[in-house]
Amino acid sequence: MADENKPMKYARYAVGEIVLVVIGILIALQINNWNEDRKENIIENKILIEILNGLREDLLDIRSNMNAHREGLKACEYYHDVFTHEQVHADSINYYYEYLTKGYISIQNKSGYESLKSRGLELVKDDSLRNDIIKLYEQDYPFIMKLEEQDPEGNFYDNYYKEINNQISPNLIFNKDGEIESIQLPLHVTETEQKKILSYLWKIKNDRMIILNIYEKVLKNLLRLQSNIERIQTKG
Question: For this UniProt entry, which segments traverse the membrane (predicted)?
Answer without folding.
Answer: 12-31
